[in-house]
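Q: Protein A?
A:
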Amino acid sequence: MTGRVVVLGSLNVDEVWQVARLPRPGETVLALDSQRYAGGKGGNQAVAAARAGARVRMVAAVGADEAGAAYQKRLEAWGIEGALTVVAPGAADVGEVRTGRALITVDATGENAIVVDPGANGCLNESALDALADLGPGDVLLCQLEIPLGIVAAAVRQAAARGARVVVNCAPFAVLPAEVVAAADPLVCNETEAAAFADLGLLPGSWLVTFGAAGCSWDGEQYVAPLVPAAEVVDTTGAGDAFCGALAAALARGATRAEAVAAAHAAGAEAVR
């Protein structure tokens, strides 16, 4: 039996605004259209892994609101086991906590700009680690950095100690303890993030650097991404999440690096369409 993908990460409600071009500082532009989606890097990657055929558990936090309830139903519809912490009103010092939100503007070329309100994601605490107690060899823990970094670090240490494979998508960029970075196999980052880790002298178990449409490299081995014609690019939002989720799913079923990257590239190409 193949392993599971356990995603520790964020769940957000995404408000996506279509614009002719992204606004300059101080400028107001009119939206051409708007949509509301379920998002967050954690949720996106969990769904991508499920779409790729993996057994998936989502470990996250939502607010005691309509958005949180809707997200739980969405995960269930995808067959994703949800170990969700519901942050009730008054449970945090700031009072009522809503499910995380993101405001995303997307221009005519598919480029985007994103602002995130963490909401309940910022309240995820060590009680969430109970959902990782049955991790073992063959399983994959997939993390991003939209939740408290201390929880990410503790989860990585726990998963590594139990023999599970750890995949860390270092987005948004943040500095992690050296032993946490070393446990990542791979650490998935873009060129800028990779340079920042290198400058700090932090070395992961393996390094997967993404170059967008140009593909990626894994410990120096180059992999070419499938070409997506510009006319077919609708929105680049979430392409990296699709890549990471499909990558983790492939690794959980025992794929080689080349096979896992091919699956990840295919998912990313589908996402931008």
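Q: Protein B?
A:
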Amino acid sequence: MAALLLEAGILFTVVAVAGALASRLGQSVIPFYIVSGIVAGPYVAGEYGLPAVEANDFVEVGAELGIVFLLFFLGLEFSLSRLVENRRRIGVAGTVDLLNLVVGFLLGYIVLGDAVAAVLVGGTVYISSSAIITKSLIDLGWIANDESDPMLGILVYEDLFIAVYLAVVSALVTGTGELTDAVSDVAVAVGFITALVAVVYIGGDLFDRLLDVRSNEAKTLRAVGVTVLVAGSALALGVSEAVAAFFVGMAFSGTGHVEVLERLLSPVRDVFAAVFFFWIGVTTDPSLIVPVAGLLVAAVAVTAPVKFATGYVGGRVYDLGVRRSTRVGLGMVTRGEFSLVVAAVAAGATGAFDTPLVTDTVPAFAVAYVLVMSVLGTSLMRYSSFFESAAKRFAEKQ
């Protein structure tokens, strides 16, 4: 316990210093949190005999809570009716976004020459980071802007699709290999999400009464309790905790307590979000980047422009102008937590799939790819004005 408490103290001290440095330089805190995790983690500080933070239970649970609260806040900004109204646009934009999965598969197969590894590479490069994008939307003040609608729609589509993808791939690569297992997992995921949608649709008064207390302490504990319980239940059933937290946030968005919740829970969100980004750094071994440098460079060079293009098209599907569509494209470049889940699936491959390409190369690539794309994506969003102006000038010449 003493060691865990010391590591927790190091964690919060390091991210506080990193956040102060980012603020002093006028930069996004996200890359600084990630890099601070690398420096304070076992692969840098630990290698030099300095006190280091491991990816222990506290850090991992804190990272999960960071994802949960970031997506909860995103849900607070939207309603189920708003999503239903945009269902056609979500379907079109999300389907266009699937091009990234195809491109990732082709890239993986060309470079690695293995179909299973290529499927895992495709999943790694396909899905954007809901948590990192949400944090950036909040920090940049884009959360209430028009560009947040297509970004949200694509993220929801991706999260639902990746739940099916992970169920199928996990059953075939790390499980018994029986397709019936995958079908069962998908059925559970669909059932749980359907139940959440029903609760959001009919349970507005219930959530309103739940928070109808004078004590801020009681209000906070009730909101946190419901959110974490539902997210944890989802994860235990193989469903994305991010999707679950998003729907819980939408349920609370229909109450009269949104402003109070945002004020009370914003510090909680920011603390655990910092732990999440720090965790990405802690799990990154810089030495693993060298063996996969060729695949990494190729992936960044190919997938960043493709993700931008599909995101831009998504913005146009929502009838946004060139500038805001450019913001959508830039924002979707960021990859994060789900790519690391794919890495974990690859690392746990068994039987005929337990090959060095699958269990070693793909996880190393995924970690390096997330590191590069999370920094690149947040930086592109931060300096989007340059790209917006360039896109506007290009459009005017056509």
